[in-house]
Design goal:
This protein is of the alpha+beta class. The chain contains 17 helices and 26 strands.
Length: about 600
């Protein structure tokens, strides 16, 4: 039919759009291009559902697209597996979103009066659960209901205002300070220099002089201090004259002017004074090492994980480096090891780092990596590093204005500290280099030596000793569980004396010390078999944790439900829980309240 044909055309169009976006490095997310991609995928899935698709299906169409268009667009075939994986993960996530959202919607519809779904309900589903508004509208039409679109728009407007309020930052001097000065940066060739004071500020107010104890901003006509940019922090160090000294705490930019954020520790300076500049050498070298390692890391990630990897953000300072990139899943230990090895191989080769300045055509000819959406000028700085760049095949080529080492060997050592997901389709690697990496190895070795001393073994026997301890601990835990079961079983024979009869119903509420969850369950089953007809609540405590297990024999479940017992009594011990009509479990952290919870069962039974 016409509607089916329209859905097929949507799928054909959307698989092309999604595949090319993913091949270009876009990943599904909740902002920017990623959000556009997510909306396209979800719209395609909705049309597939209209055609009768019940399971994930959209990712399967990539193979047909690659076969049809792969000759003209080789990247489709090269990245087919990555595109399929990205679409599959997003489809599965959307399926969970639909499942959770439908449950909430059903609850709201059951409680709703009238024929209009309120705008705040539609907004809650959209904002909290990612439930598409058009899907809510479709379900409404199927049930002869309508959606309060005006109410939804009001909630959206409130959300936009909240976002604007949250986005208001503290005073941003870099924005407030507007100065038509171009500072000449000399820091690529050295860490010392001098410049004339062309502007002074206290906060955003322009002043004529700085005195001892003042905090302010100094603008020079020339400086070796690097200003915070491109993920690299600004330099630290000091400015001075014969009669004055200023600590440089941070360096930022406003337009083409470099702003030195200073504390005046001695003397007095004014407009027109000549100042000597001295960048902190150790911090500059450590930062440069981390920045150069970031470039090697980026290249290694693309070689190990695939060319879909694109930079999504970075932070480089003198302590560590942090790199965010597009990738749909967690990186395995083997992949991390391969990435780390590639970077350290390039460091050991100790090849020269080459910097050239050229236009964008030159950069493209060299195969330089460029950040999607980044604005570049007519003249760009091209940084090449790693083995083989002299033959035109560098390990890494990127556009970058930051400070870097002279040779890769200056980095010394590279060590990955952590890898984790920070957003949908975005992973983060944190790493250290040089002295920090060596210190990490030293710390690990010290920990191993301390552990060896405790275990009374040496490094050669360390792994075997730990394995033996793990196995021994496993056996002890098994024996302990068996003892707890015996203890609980032995206690069960004494529980019959605690059985009460309330309105003709047998009731047992008892605490069994030393019993774990499994032992409590076993005891519950024993008592149900023994009593034949009863309502039972058993409890145990361990440390600051209280465990409750309730059971109701089959003949009484129409009148009493174990899940209701736990729902009503678990809050008494500061917790919650739930379960079936015949068996339920819960717990809390108020172990002192366990006797009260047990005592409450009698009143609970008598009221039903």
């Amino acid at each position: 039919n016409n509607e089916g044909q329209a859905s097929l055309k949507v799928l054909a169009d959307h698989i092309r759009s999604c595949s090319f976006l993913i091949a270009d490095g876009v990943t599904p997310s909740n902002e920017g291009r990623g959000y556009v991609l997510r909306r396209i995928i979800r719209r395609a899935v909705r049309h597939g559902n209209k055609l009768g698709a019940k399971d994930v299906f959209f990712y399967k169409i990539v193979a047909a697209l690659a076969q049809e268009m792969g000759d003209a667009y080789p990247d489709l075939r090269k990245q087919q597996a990555h595109i399929e994986k990205t679409l599959l993960v997003e489809e599965e996530q959307f399926a969970r979103t639909l499942e959770n959202g439908l449950k909430i919607l059903e609850q709201d519809l059951a409680e709703m009066k009238g024929k209009v779904i309120p705008g705040d309900v539609v907004f809650k589903l959209y904002d909290t659960f990612g439930f598409p508004v058009d899907l809510t509208a479709d379900i409404a039409r199927e049930r002869d209901l309508t959606v309060d679109e005006a109410g939804f728009e009001r909630e959206m407007e409130k959300q936009r205002k909240r976002s604007q309020e949250a986005g208001k930052f503290e005073l941003d001097y870099n924005t407030l300070i507007k100065i038509n000065v171009k500072t000449n940066f000399t820091g690529y060739s050295g860490i010392k220099g001098h410049g004339k004071v062309v502007a002074l500020y206290h906060g955003a107010e322009q002043i004529d002089a700085l005195r001892e104890g003042d905090h302010g901003i100094v603008v020079l006509d020339s400086t070796p201090f690097y200003a915070e940019s491109g993920g690299q922090i600004g330099d630290a160090g000091f400015l001075y004259t014969q009669f004055a000294h200023l600590d440089v705490n941070n360096v930022t930019k406003s337009g083409s002017a470099i702003l030195h954020h200073v504390t005046m520790t001695r003397g007095y300076i004014k407009l027109g004074d000549d100042l000597y500049a001295n960048v902190a050498a150790d911090a500059r070298l450590a930062t440069a090492s981390n920045h150069s390692a970031t470039h090697l890391l980026h290249a290694a990630l693309r070689k190990v994980l695939g060319t879909h990897v694109q930079q999504k953000g970075s932070l480089v300072d003198d302590q560590r480096l942090r790199f965010d990139f597009s990738h749909p899943e967690a990186i395995t230990d083997e992949q991390l090891q391969a990435i780390e090895t590639l970077v350290n191989d390039e460091i050991r080769r100790n090849t020269a780092v080459e910097t050239t300045v050229g236009d964008m055509d030159t950069a493209k000819a060299k195969g330089a990596m460029m950040l999607f959406g980044e604005k570049y000028g007519d003249s760009v700085r091209i940084l090449s590093m790693g083995a083989g760049f002299s033959e035109g095949h560098p390990f890494s080529v990127e556009l970058c204005g930051g400070t870097h080492v002279t040779r890769t060997g200056d980095i010394g050592l590279f060590r990955i500290v952590s890898e984790a997901g920070v957003a949908s389709g975005v992973r983060r690697v944190e790493a250290v280099t040089g002295k920090a990496a060596l210190a990490r190895f030293d710390a690990i070795e010290m920990e191993v030596d301390n552990a060896c001393a405790v275990l009374k073994t040496n490094r050669a026997g360390f792994a075997d000793k730990v394995q033996a301890l793990v196995e021994n601990n496993r056996q002890l835990e098994k024996q302990l569980a068996q003892l707890k079961m015996k203890l609980a079983s032995g206690g069960a024979s004494d529980l019959s004396a605690q059985v009460k009869e309330i309105n003709g119903v047998k009731m047992l509420a008892a605490q069994i010390d030393g019993a774990d969850v499994n032992a409590l369950r076993a005891t519950l089953d024993q008592m149900k078999d023994k009593l034949k007809s009863a309502v039972i609540l058993l409890a145990s405590t361990e440390g600051d944790k209280a465990t409750l297990i309730a059971g109701v024999t089959a003949d009484l479940t129409m009148r009493f439900k174990a899940g209701d017992i736990i729902r009503d009594l678990a809050p008494l011990v500061g917790g919650k829980g739930g379960g079936r009509a015949d068996m339920a479990q819960g717990g809390g952290t108020d172990v002192a309240a366990v006797p009260k919870a047990l005592a409450t069962l009698e009143n609970w039974v008598s009221q039903r």
